[in-house]
Amino acid sequence: MHATTNMLFEVKDLEVTYLQGDQREPVLKDVSFYMEQNETVALLGQSGSGKSTLAKAMTGMLPHSARVTSGSLTIGTEQVANLTDTSTPWQRIRGRRIAMLYQDPRQALNPLMKIKDNFRELLQDHQLASSRDYLQISEQWLYALNFQDAKRVLECYPFQLSGGMCQRVCLALALCLKPSVLIADEPTSALDIVNQREVLDVLKTVQKQYGLTLLMITHDLAVANSIGDRVLILNKGKIVEEGNTKKVFSKPQDSYTKQLLSARSLLSESPQRKSVSFQSKQKLLEIKGLEKQFQQKQVLTNIDLTLHRHEIMGILGQSGCGKSTLARCVMGLETINSGQMMYKGTDLSKLNNKKRRAMSKHIQLVFQEARGSLHPGRTALQIVMEPLHYLHLGNRKERQSLAEAFLKEVGISSDMHARKPPQLSTGQCQRIAIARALVLRPEVLICDEAVSALDMHVQAQILKLLQQLHQKFEFAILMISHDIRVLRSFCHTIAVIDQGRFCEVRPANALEKESKNAYTKKLFHSALEMEKGLSL
Amino acid sequence: MLLIFSRKILEALLTLGLATSILFILIRLAPGDPVAIMIGQSSDVASSNTERYEQKLLELRSEFGLNQTIFQQYFIWMKQLILFDLGDSIHTGRSVMTEIADRLPATILLSVAALFIQIVLGILLGVLSALKFGRFFDHLTRFLCVLFASTPGFVIGLVLLSTFAVTFSTYEINTEAKLSRLWLPALTLGMIGAPQWIRTIRANMLTEFGQPYISSAVSRGLKYRRIVEHAFKNTLLPIVTMTGLSLTTLISGAVVIESIFSWPGIGKYALDSILLKDYPVIQGYALLMIALVIVIHLVIEIVYSFIDPRIHRKGEENVKKDY
């Protein structure tokens, strides 16, 4: 590798295999890279490319089934670990020299421990504070990470803080040991756009302030673009391209990088951009003054919404704003406190269970967690046949042929019909979930963050598929998402929801220009800031 | 908080009333007549002519109020209950309250001691075998768990009794409930129940070890002991639930072991009364057990909310505001 004078961190010839069945499958092949002091390097790859394995190998945290066959780790001028050596004193390296940030910040903190106790044991274990002065030190670190109310935060449990705040707490915990290298493993992918922005800003600031060398592991081009000085592209365990971020993104050399960039541009294409008027079309779903409370907490306030035949409407908002609750209310999974939900003149909230069930033929829901929403013990074909069976539609043969037809429609070939969800990829699972929803030929399809958990190119594939199916079967879609990019490219109309209220409803192509709402602007600002420089 | 608490108490009373009522009816619907059994045992009436037998039957039935309708009987029982009177045993004529009060402490003592042994064994071996996952110790513990879980309790009891009372003569055999006689039945019950604890704690520890907060703690370079503590604290929740469930099972189900070790607990007394269809005793015993289960579950819920902050802070206002 290019040894430079400022080189701080170097991984050489790293190879890792996993035991799969009886065989050892290589997961990382000949991975070598370096990072300079104060540099931010983005490691970009899709799920299954070996990103997290790389992070684990660098901190000696690989599971038992993994084996490092070669590789060394150098920090500064000292080779701190021969990665094949199992007797490496990792406890002295972890935290002190290499710190880590994890994907889901709420899960990265012990749910039963107050924030202050996390600091106490960390500082005591590393002999940086006694039981008397740890509070003071913890407070200082929290203030350094933009917490205005550090004293109160220290007394909180993780569940009392937002995702962004938890991630900043994790960052404070990582920084208080003054490491020279910080590995952030998808630190923002579990957060919505505003929290994402918040964490990335803080990361940038502390990286400069404390002279950190930052390795940002991500699957998101926008994140890599907004933070990385250099970018490494990882595909199937190999680094296929590396270089200056702007250069790589503007002139990609490797075919895989090109593929990634094209998947993204596909998302940003705007086939729905032309303004379409739906006023003349039939109203399918009409919600008026919907209110929903959980215990004493108001979750949805005065929601008015009209969905016309063939319309694609986006519901945009941060996590916790009530988007999913709205979907669940429409599906009858939650009872509403007041208001009307009319489907072609029938009030959904007044139906009894039997009629409600019959209504599921007309309104269907696709969930975010594709794999989790499918029965793990049933085959793809059985899963798609199930709703037909429940609603007593057709005989067995007819059901099977219909299910087969719809599986073909979503691009699941017949050799995969007998496979069960654990044997399928997440993208395939989401296709099956879509087939299961569409096999009833519903007139309204609700997609609750249906593509958020997917890799970029799979996201693009699924959205393209939904568009094709929408053209063919002419159903209306209620697309719930926190991703402006997805909604902007996919929807006719976008409704922005903040703290359970609709701020505004506008045509997708006009939202950015015409919106005067501060919240909408904040969402757009956060999203666009990250995309700057991505040649789209 | 006060509202939640009073609601819980109300719920508990309702459950108690409903459960005892159902039991009251079921006991009377079951075949067999306590008076007939009683007369059958005293040879002078049974051997004489049927007319006298029938007459005696009627006499005794009216004496114990059994000639009244079920509802009348239920009403009388309720009236007694309000005055904290469980009635008198048909068989012995003694007050049920006194009989139970005489025997219950011995059973509770035995159950608590057994539970203590179960928890200690469970935590110790469960945590250790999770830490030694896949190694010899883990395999050995698992083997022993299967062995003890599949051996009937009375076999373990008899083996221990013959070993310590006969072979080594270290255990005295009589019917007294004293501390020097407690350890062997407690150990037996402990060994019967421990496998369940060991397996649950081991499985929970392994699940917790796979959680992201553990990886995160490891990556911060915390000491090994701390990391184990993290995982253990999170396995405490199911342990609390299991404590309650085990305690109720022990108190109500220790009858076999009590018989083997001649431990003067309530189990044997209840079993005898059931065979004799001694209604007041069965009712009193059932009422007590149901009340005990309800109280234990109430305590579990309260303890739960102290261990898991997510439960008792649920109602607090949203504190996720920083800007």
UniProtKB/TrEMBL annotation, chain A:
Q: Which PANTHER family match?
A: TRANSPORT ATP-BINDING PROTEIN
Under which name does UniProt file this protein? Peptide/nickel transport system ATP-binding protein
Q: Which Gene3D superfamilies match?
A: P-loop containing nucleotide triphosphate hydrolases
Q: Which PROSITE patterns match?
A: ABC_TRANSPORTER_1, ABC_TRANSPORTER_2
Q: Which SMART domains match?
A: AAA
**Protein's organism:** Saliterribacillus persicus
What one GO molecular function would you report for this record?
Answer: ATP binding
Keyword Magnesium in record: no
Locate the ABC transporter domain: which residues? 11-261, 285-524
GO process terms (BP): transmembrane transport
Automatic annotation (TrEMBL), chain B:
InterPro entries, per database record: BPD_transp_1_N, MetI-like, MetI-like_sf
Instruction: Name the keywords, alphabetized.
Output: Cell membrane, Membrane, Transmembrane, Transmembrane helix, Transport
Q: Where in the cell is it found?
A: Cell membrane
Q: Where are the transmembrane segments?
A: 12-30, 108-131, 143-168, 180-198, 235-261, 281-304
Task: Report if keyword Nucleus is assigned.
Answer: no
Similarity annotation = Belongs to the binding-protein-dependent transport system permease family.
Name the record gives this protein: Peptide/nickel transport system permease protein
